[in-house]
Structures are given as structure tokens and as C-alpha cells.
Amino acid sequence: MNHPLDPLTADEFRQTAAVLRRDRGVDERWRFAGIELREPAKDVVRAWQPGDGVAREARVTCFDRTTNTAYNAVVSLTDDAVLSWCEQPGVQPNMTVDEWHEAHEALIGHPRVLEALAARGITDTDLVLIDTWAYGHALIPEQYRDRRVGWTDTWLRATPTGNPYAHPVDGLHLVVDLNTMELLDVEDTGPVPPNDGAMGEYVPALVPGLVLREDLRPVEITQPEGTSFALDGHELRWQKWSMRLGFTHREGLVLHRVAYDGRPIAHRMSFAEMVVPYRDPGTDHQRRTAFDIGEWGLGFMTTSLELGCDCLGEIRYLDAELHDSHGEPYTITNAICLHEEDDGVLWKHVDERAGAEVRRNRRMVVSFHATVANYEYLVYWRFSTDGSIQCEVRATGIMVTSTVDGTVPPYGNLVDERTYAPFHQHFIVARLDLEVDGPENTVVVSETAAAPPTDADPYRLGLTVRETPIEVEGFSDVSWETARSWKVVNRTKPNRLGKAPGYKLEPSASFPAMLHPDSVVLARAGVVQHPVWVTPFAEDERWPAGEFCNQSERDTGLPEWTRAQRPVTDTDVVLWHVFGIHHVTRPEDWPVMPADIVSFTLKPVGFFDRNPALDVPPVAGHCSPGCTCEHCA
Ligand SMILES: [Cu+2]
Questions:
Q1: Number of other residues whose CB lies within 10 A of the CB of residue 410
Q2: Among the options 71, 260, 375, 503, which is catalytic?
Q3: For the whole model, what pTM was predicted?
């Protein structure tokens, strides 16, 4: 093992499962919902030097299907022993990929399902996809609430490779016990007349009359001397940036120990939740509030990347190791993509005498793609020559639709003939455990206002900034009136100008939740109500809508933790940012969505004494007429 933060290896997954089988009777009647590295304490990580020993521990959530009981465990891999074993009463662990497949297999041949399909003229079950969703307590039929259950959509492919999401089998939803794979309920509101007018295919051969355009010539990105970054195990180094790449079943990519020129900026950054409420109360859509991280896991949903399609240029890939519900490891090859990209002009000035000085920006991109059933989320972290960090998400894939039979509901739009796509929102919660020049951080709210009128300002020009440190944990909202922003600063390490060096969160994709206070979504995910939250670091506070979102009734995350009103000045703080897509559906999003792109930026403010990119060299032979450097001379 190279570093204490390296993700668990295949052997470590195997060992974790074996220890629990041996010492806690976790046999084949059980499932492993999640196994991940239990990261060592931060001071241990900071003090670690190459060659030092590493105590390896795994954190496990597993459940006994027979008794429907969940347990959390910590296993020492170093000592081959169970360190803790705690029953988790009244909760359901995340869904597993195995259950999703097994539910399809169990339900597709069930006589009641066959009967409901036959009533709709569907007899070839090879073309049918039964797509299991997790759901919240309030929407589960009362008599099944103490079981582990899923509800299903049913989709029909027109041909064996056709798009299942092109053809909803309307009005048919099943409730399944996922421990026994028993069909509990068939909710059948009756067939809807077939919709032959819509076109939901996107694979070229299946799109009638599609002519691929022929006027695109190739773009090739080459780096004839190789890349400027280096990957050593899970450590990435590029120019002055350094970081470690982690991966978990729930978060997917995790960035650890992000530093610039050896100065720490973040201890750990990842996506901690994604909540996708569909805002149509009709029977086809009312159960649809997906917790893509808490219920399914972005890591489990991560797909392998393909050179030339997903990533262009000189690429390095990193594989990811995960485990199935039996604790058996498997590899996602090419799970994380690493590459550099040109990003246009970084800085420029044209002087009458000195001529033009131009520098191009270069960014180091770390990315991964997750396919969550019908949708894909493409995640890009970009590190820039000027010290800024951008996190971008591209949402693409296929919208959920249902067939209109009569009036179009007011909760969505028609995207094709009789094809209705409900409005929905994708709230992504980034957990930003920053460490700006060390752990003693404070979040400062920066607000701008017109200066009060005075005689010294007869033209009423004054503009002032008010900076208010956040003293107590809690939330903060976007303010148009004051152009509010949030800076994570280190007041113990003043810069050359006597100010606290900082990194500022620049949101660009936050929107109001627009949920009624009585909404069942808010009860489960109060975090989505506010775009910014600040908490003191606590090892067990990782999941902003609670650790167990599956079948949850009430949130046990940020809204609950922050009630403690803990102080958050000059201490190890965590900044949480809620952003995403307010998806008012369009015909152009059908049959496959052009990527909807959203992002936020972390930008240095007083972290550097001046533009940190003055030392970026000009492009060889260009961009600097007076330059005598080796590139230009
Ligand atoms: Cu959407």
C-alpha cells in the first residue's frame, strides 16, 4: 500500500467480506450494500511520510435479507478483525446493482406481470425492461413500509437494441420486496392507447431518415512531447498542483489533499448527494424522487471511458475497484480520465511599444461519467494555471416520459407527439472539505452595497464591500441584491497585504427549491433549500440528506446537524454547495439530451500575492515579441 488514502484494493474488499463472514456470520443470505476505505484521521494523513506504515480499515454497510436488518461495521484489514459492529434499526441501506438486475429477472416472468403486459398487447418479454426505483417512506403503501421495497417502471424496446425509454408502458407500476424478490403489488391504472407518432430512438441506424452530416473534418489533439502531468499510484502532479485521487461506491471520484505549490487548499472534495425530485403528482411520476448518490451511488454507476469519444487527446486513465452485493470485487476499467486541455487566453495585454504579450491557459481535467438508468452525469474537475478550480457537471441521457392520453398535465411539457416529460430538478450537493493554508479556516460572507450618500460622494458613486465571518454553523442563500459570495479564509496566516488568504466559492447554477414546506421531498432532503451550508468538520457527517436515504421519512443530515449551532471560526470547516439543473423540459432534450452544463468555481482571493500565472511561458516562438527565453529566442 502506497498511501493511507489509496482506495481499497480488490484483495481488501475480499478480506473485508471474509472477516465478516468468519466473525459475524455474514453468509449468502446477506448483501454488502457498501464497502469503502475508512480514511485515517486528518492529522495522521498530514504527518504520513513515504515508508511509514499504514493501518488499513474498511467501513461496511451490510444487511441480512432474512431478518431485514442493517448493520454498519468497521473492519481492520491490518489486524484482520472486526473493530465495530452496530445494528442500524429502522433504516434501509442503499440499493445494489444486483437487486436491480434480480428484480427484473424475478418480475418479468410473473403471471400477474405477463397478464398486465398482454392486456397492452405486449407478449415478447425480451423487449421489456423492468426498471426498479427506490422511494421515500410516505409513498410506500403502508403495509409494506417495514420491508425493503422498490417500485418499478416498465419500458418497452421497439427492437432488441432499441431505446427502452422511448416507450413507457404507461399505467403499470409494480411494488417488489427486494429481500425476497416477491411481487407485492401490481398498480395498474389501465392501458393508454399506443403512441405511434413519437420517435424516441437515438442510435443512428434506428432513427428513420437520419442522414449523418458529412461536413465535419477531424480535430486532433496531440502532445508530441507527452503530457505535462505525472501520475504516481493515485497521486497526480501537474505544474504546481498536486492531489490524490480516491474513489468510493457512493461518491465516485474523491479528490484528496489538493495543494498548490505545496500549500494545502482542500483535504477532500466530492459529491455527497444528488436529489432529483420529479414535480408531477400524477400516479406515473409521484414516487420519482431519486437520490442518485444516497440510494444508488455514483461510484456503482460509473462507466468505462472510451478514448476519442469520452476523452480527446493524450489521456491517462485510472481504473476503479468496487464490489458487488456479495462482497466480490470487480474493476471498472478507465473509470477516471486525466488529461490537459487548452483553455483559450489566460492573460493578455497589447502595449504600443512592447507589443502583445499573450499567455494561453491550460487546465488539468480529472473526470468520470456515471450512468444512472436513463440519465448520465459527467463530472469534470478542472485545475487551472491561475490557481482556480472549476467543477462542472454535464447532464445528458434520456428524460423520463409518459404517454399523454387526453390533456397535457401542467407539470411538464410535450417533447414529442403525446410524449410528456415532467419538470424535475437535479440538486447536486458538493462537499468541500477545504483546508486553505491549513485547517484553521473561517467562512466569510462578502457582500457589496452602494455606499450611504455622503458629502464626500456628491456623485453617489461609492461601492463598498462588507465582510462578515460566519460564526455559527448553518446555511446561507444567494443574494442578487448584494452579489453575495463566500470565502474560506485562513485568518492565522495573513498574506503580504495583511489579509487572510482565501478561496472563494463562485456559484453559477443554484436555484430555489420551490418546494412547499409540507413537501415530502423537503422532509427527506432539507439540504436542497439553501445553496450554501457551513459546518465544523465531523468524521461521521458526510451525507447531507442522511446516511440512509433509501425509504427515508425524515432527513438526518445537514438540517439536523446544524441545529447544534456549533461555532465555525478558525477551525476545520466544511463548505457544502448545492447546485444543479432546474429542468424545464424541452423538445430539444428528446430523444437524447444535449448535455446541460452547470458548474461552480473555487477562486483564489489573496491566496497569492499577485497573478500566479506570470510565470507561464509564451507558446514557443509566439506571443512575446521582446522575449529572449529559450522558447522564443
Ligand atoms: Cu433533467
A1: 8
A2: 375
A3: 0.97
**Among residues 6, 292, 433, 555, which one is catalytic?**
292
448/190 Cα distance (integer angstroms): 58
Q: Name the DSSP letter for residue 137.
A: G
* Residue-wise pLDDT tens digits, 445-487: 999 999 999 999 999 999 999 999 999 999 999 999 999 999 9
Average pLDDT over residues 231-248: 97
Q: What nine digits make up the cell of 495?
A: 498574506
3-state secondary structure 515-566: CCCCCHHHHHCHHHHCCEEEEECCCCCCCCCCCCCCCCCCCCCHHHHHHHCC
Cell numbers given for 470? 460566519
- Residue 375 bears catalytic tag: yes
- Report which of 57, 139, 131 is spatially closest to residue 97, judged by C-alpha positions: 131
pLDDT in tens, 493-508: 999 999 999 999 999 9
3-class secondary structure, 236: strand
Lookup result for grid cell 461552480: 600
DSSP 387: S
Please tell me the distance between residue 274's alpha carbon and the centre of ligand 1 in angstroms.
12
Helix extents (H) in 121-169: none
What pairing do the DSSP bridges indicate for beta strands 485-489 and 474-476?
unpaired
Residue-wise burial string across 160-192, b where 16 or more C-beta atoms lie within 10 A, e elsewhere: eebbbbbbbbbbbbbbbbbbeeebbbebbeebb
The rounded distance, in Å, linking the Cα atoms of 270 and 54 is 23
Helix (H) or strand (E) holding 224: none
